[in-house]
Design goal:
The protein is α+β, with helices and mostly antiparallel strands and 161 residues long. The chain has 2 domains: 76 residues, Ubiquitin-like (UB roll) (Roll); 72 residues, [2Fe-2S]-binding domain (DNA polymerase, domain 1), CATH 1.10.150. Strands 2-1-5-3-4 form a 5-stranded mixed β-sheet, with helices on both faces. Strand 3 and strand 4 form a beta hairpin. The protein binds FE2/S2 (inorganic) cluster (2 copies).
């Protein structure tokens, strides 16, 4: 058995300190050790986007990142998207716009959409399509998801106006 390595990082605003195997993946640590099971594992090889998280504000696939690389980093998962007990406009828009069916892709979609809106508050439809292009949805046909992201952008902008 390989020696475990200590990793201290921030997850959804709280410090996490874990001893991890050198080859442990962030997705597994989030789900199995930190019980943040909203991050889904679909393909486990970087092609479906279900495991998307933000690392220091950047969209990343947690099934591809060794957990040891998280030392000192700040991670946001779907559980950290709501703030002050209030759903994020993205979460509300997905619920109200029927942008989620089986729900398997939803965490990753919302995290990918958050990465977009945090850097581009007024995206075009093409920007949204591009931003979620790494996320596979087998149920919705994508249109309700794209509409929900655009609706959330409008809401966020109305709120901050
Ligand atoms: S589980 Fe990570 S991309 Fe599919
Ligand atoms: S809602 Fe089922 S995979 Fe997207």
């Amino acid at each position: 058995m390989m020696a475990r390595v200590p990793v201290i990082f921030t997850v959804n605003g709280r410090e996490a300190a874990e001893f991890v195997e050198p080859d442990a993946l962030l997705a597994d640590i989030l789900r199995d050790k930190l019980e943040l099971t909203g991050t889904r594992i679909g393909c486990n090889q970087g092609t479906c986007g279900a495991c998307s998280v933000l690392v220091d504000g950047e969209l990343m696939l947690s099934c591809l990142i060794p957990a040891v690389r998280m030392e000192g980093k700040t991670v946001v998962t779907i559980e950290g998207v709501a703030s002050n007990g209030e759903l994020d406009p993205l979460q509300r828009a997905f619920a109200e716009g029927f942008a989620t069916q089986c729900g398997f892709c939803t965490s990753g979609m919302i995290v990918a959409a958050k990465a977009l809106l945090d850097s581009n508050p007024a995206p075009s439809r093409d920007d949204v399509v591009e931003a979620i292009s790494g996320n596979i949805c087998r149920c919705t046909g994508y249109e309700p998801i794209i509409d929900a992201v655009l609706a959330a952008a409008d809401r966020r902008n109305a709120k901050s106006a």
